[in-house]
Write a structure and sequence with these properties.
heterodimer, A: about 80 residues, Non-ribosomal Peptide Synthetase Peptidyl Carrier Protein, Chain A, B: about 240 residues, Rossmann fold, 6 helices, globular
Chain lengths: ~80, ~240
């Protein structure tokens, strides 16, 4: 069963996913870059999987490779879900 | 270490190396999905022998030549036992001929079954493995590929490709507790080699005999085991000394 992807729930799930892959919770803001959070491409693959499991939204290679900040992922998930 | 919930999928497991591998992995306590394409009786016999030994197994049919087939097959495994956390890409075929005479369909079909299908199944399986922080992918390659064998340019290409794929994927996912390795059997007595004249290659093999499916399966079973957790990106050659 998938959850509806409004901005609040998307942010919560992505934040939790980032923490799971080792990002410092205190550093996770909308403007934070993945580089600053030490989140690499494998981590993003895993976050894409978390997002897919939770919201039924599929993030494929082309979607993900240009994303630089947390805010961009949140916005992409919300946009794809609607 | 407690085991995550999941299962093993062995492709091409109605006979030969696949069947022996399914049994070996089931003996380690994993539920096993025994994949087959065209031999339901063979697959059923493997399931029966696993259950007779106290294990759990199901037979699952799929033609592996499409992306949908990989998704569907893994979906069936997941529904029965949980996600496939051990994947043995064993399904393989030959269509031999000297290169000037290999037809397009003989080239394509061998690459498709031996390499492309293995990739699709691996791609789909990696996601739950990464999430579980545990995975074992074992690709059944061959000594042919790294070495030449006249009449098998297509087979050699598919197996060399499988080895290249093994190494790169291994390095991508290693830090998530997912290992990806290959075994490279030499000559083994199975359906795939039944048409070769018996004893013809014994002089080239220091052990002076073909291998048995169980001998290859023991190596696959090891690479799929908890104990092989620090082995990744490697090729285990099982050929009676032929390549040494």
């Amino acid at each position: 069963m998938t959850t509806k992807a409004d901005p609040q729930s998307a942010e919560a799930v992505i934040r939790q996913g980032l923490e799971e892959v080792g990002a410092d919770p205190g550093q996770i803001t909308r403007d934070a870059t993945f580089e600053s959070l030490d989140v690499d491409s494998l981590d993003l693959v895993e976050i894409a999987q978390i997002v897919e499991d939770e919201f039924g939204v599929e993030l494929v290679g082309d979607d993900v490779k240009d994303l630089k900040t947390v805010g961009e992922v949140i916005d992409l998930v919300v946009a794809k879900a609607s | 270490m407690s085991r995550p919930e999941g299962a093993a999928l062995v492709t091409g497991a109605s006979g030969g190396i696949g069947a022996a591998s399914a049994r070996a992995i089931a003996a380690h306590g994993w539920p096993v999905a025994v994949h087959f394409r065209s031999d339901p009786d063979g697959a059923a016999a493997v399931v029966e022998s696993i259950e007779a030994d106290g294990g759990r197994a199901i037979a699952v049919r799929a033609d592996l030549d499409s992306n949908e087939a990989a998704d569907e097959l893994l979906g069936q495994v997941e529904a029965a036992f949980g996600p496939a956390l051990i994947l043995v890409n064993n399904a393989g075929r030959r269509a031999d001929g000297l290169s000037p005479q290999i037809k397009d369909e003989d080239w394509q079909s061998v690459i498709e079954t031996n390499l492309n299908a293995a990739f699709r199944l691996t791609r789909r399986s990696l996601k739950p493995m990464i999430r579980a922080r545990f995975g074992r992918v074992v690709n059944v390659a061959s000594v042919v590929g790294p070495r030449a064998n006249p009449g098998q340019a297509n087979y050699a290409a598919s197996k060399a490709g499988l080895i290249g794929m093994t190494k790169t994927i291994a390095v991508e996912v290693a830090r998530r507790g997912v290992t990806v390795n290959a075994v490279a059997p030499g000559l083994v007595e199975t359906g795939l080699t039944a048409d070769l004249p018996s004893g013809a290659f014994d002089d080239a093999i220091p052990a002076r005999r073909a291998g048995t499916p169980e001998e290859i399966a023991a190596c696959i079973g090891f690479l799929a085991s908890d104990e092989a957790s620090y082995v990744t990106g490697s090729v285990l050659t099982v050929d009676g000394g032929m390549s040494a």
